[in-house]
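Re: the request from the purification team.
They wanted to know what the chain is likely to look like in 3D before they choose a buffer screen. I agreed to run a prediction and write the result into the notebook, where they can find it.
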Amino acid sequence: MQSETALLTLVLIADDHDDHYLAMEETLLQEGFIVERVRSSEDAILRCSNQPPVNIALVDASLPGKNAHLLTQQPRPANYPPLTFILMSSFSVTAVSLALAWGCKEFLSKPVGMDELLAVVKKWSNAGMHIQSAT
């Protein structure tokens, strides 16, 4: 069931694996989220700096290009809403520790379960982060 919050939440999926992306996209679209995709860290950095503001970024830790850490450290225009980063990777204690140290709000172990994905995205979309005009 679509919620008003979902309809206002732009989720960027930064993943270069089609099978992962397509499953996540289908799940999020069915719930009414706005979904965009990039395939590299560089493209994710550019997209997170442009209009409309991205609210939640699901980032594969092994994206081609710059390290995912650099993406979490990129400045955003002051009038943009906060950006929630969620790191996705094969589970390891090191990966979880790095995600938290980088300021990520959550860590999802790949392959990501769709119920878990939806719960995490809904949690952060309900935290008041939704599309706003950046004027």
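For the purification team: The longest helix spans residues 18-30.
Please add any questions underneath this entry.
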